[in-house]
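Example record

One chain of 405 residues, shown exactly as stored in the release files.
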Amino acid sequence: MPAYRYRALSAAGEAQQGLLDAPDLDQALDRIHNMGLTPVRLEPQGAATDRIRRIPFLDKKVTPRDLILFTRQLETMLDSGLPILSSLESLHAQATHPRLKRAIDRVRSDVEQGSTLTEALRRQPECFPRIYVNLVFAGEEGGLLAQMLDRVGTLLEYEAETDQRIRSATFYPTLIITELGLAFLVLIKFVLPRFASLFRKFDTQLPLPTRVLIGVSDFFERWWIPFLFAVGCAAAGAILWSRTPRGRSTIDRMVITTPIFGPIFLMTIMSRFARVLSALLASGIPIVQALDIVRGVVGNTIVEAEIDKMRDGVVAGMGLAEPLRGSPVFPPLVVKMLAVGEETGAVDKMLLRVSRYYDQDVDYAVKNLSTAIEPVLLIILGAAVLFTALAVFLPLWNLMNVFRH
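Predicted structure tokens for this chain:
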């Protein structure tokens, strides 16, 4: 008869574990219930565990799709009245992603030992990002965890869809730029050195574009190893710098001010800010606490600084809209809608309208992204082709004139 290893809670909330014999899983569950216990974990004896150490860079990352599926399933179970431990145990059994499966097991173990879901999720940053954890924290604080998980799932789905649209819109330009770069490398590595040896045999002044390309070719021919080393060091330095407060602030500012893509990212942040703050206020969370929570949701230090001004203004009795007047980050529409919401006492409803408005704007901007990129792409492509053509054909023309004379 098969043996099953179980972990369960007694009526007093004490954790118990052990082995029992049963013909199948259903009868094993019945025996645990007959013992007056609430099953938390049940698996066949000898089943492979997921606690095997893995090489980090060979372990697949948790994708947005995996996180969305986990969130939707957890929200459904909690909304159906299942306890959090039972829900996590079921999700652990159903999970197929190795890293997520291990994270769910650790989260369940932490919750069983008395941690909140937020604290348990925060200990697994490789699977649950900071924004995700802060949104779950908002749900726990407001006593509306299932509802907040539903909003988290909707937000993740929307951002995954937006990210996919941006990838689709930029695929063709990225492909063209990549092929252009490869063609340039082939030109300076294989084609230009042969032309250069031919041109040097004749006492004639080479055109500037040709001299530039030959100089680039000679540089890579002699110094390509130091060049790659310098690029690697620069990349490592840039990564370390981006983790400093000043570096992150600079990068976050560039993200929302970059032409073409910057407005899309800013509108996405504004939509997230408005939607989450609306949900928190509608849940009855105090405004100062709600601003502290939403500050950790926006994912941009520049916007976080503006939210800090907003929170300080609320504490000083200035309200929500007044501290943002003249803000270089928050659009006037958001400030105006906040002011109207304060006057009418319906800030949460106004913020929800702001979120929907920016959702529509992001959809429109993403749909027209290809149209916005095409002129820039044509200019870059045309300039590169023109420069290369002049560099190759002008000296040939000069050589033909030399031969004629």
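Notes: The longest strand covers residues 3-9.
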